[in-house]
Amino acid sequence: MKTIALIALLFGTGGLALSSTSAVTTKAFRLKLGEQSIDIDVGERAEITLPDGSKVRVELTRNEFATYSGEGFTFVHPSDVSVTRSDLGDGVVQHLMTTALGTMVIVQTYDGLDPSTLNEMMLKELTGDAVAAGAKLERKDAKRDVSGKTLSGIVATETLRRDTVDYEIESYGKDDAGVIVITRMDRENAAQDSAKIAKFWETFRLQ
Prior knowledge:
Elements: H1 2-10, E1 16-20, E2 29-33, E3 36-40, E4 45-49, E5 55-59, E6 65-70, E7 73-78, E8 83-89, E9 92-98, E10 104-111, H2 119-132, E11 136-146, E12 149-160, E13 163-173, E14 177-186, H3 190-203, E15 205-206
Antiparallel strand pairs: 1-2, 2-3, 4-5, 6-7, 7-15, 8-9, 9-10, 10-14, 11-12, 12-13, 13-14
């Protein structure tokens, strides 16, 4: 069943080319310039000898942000935070961004089900264990306008003793298809991660 799978998995330009290298090298990338190539890591400088004998210095640097494209949506995220894609089956695809501190952004796309009916179920799955352990849950309805579409959902705060977690669940559905977005952040990590969530919402676009 679709909801069971959902719950189970919730929790170059021109002649210059760049590709990930295989397991036989300790370097993460291979930089090619014409017919010459060199294994290199981000932040590393190297020197390449061209066919005419001349030498050029190269440096591999990381952009601060990258654009992620999924099924019918895009958003911008810090380039040092990866986004993973998982096919949950039955037309549900999940895209998960998790920071080193555990802050999460989840985008799930649906084909065959209107996800706007799942907001309450998602909130229960996210907070059920803590509430059973005595956590206080405060919530209110929320809306966001994205690309001319109105996402409806819930903003919630879970407090258990000294720990506070902030959640937002927003969804949009039409004709048995749509998207649901979930963010989760421990309040103590707001100084480091709140800007990442803000950047997501600032750049999130639906096609």
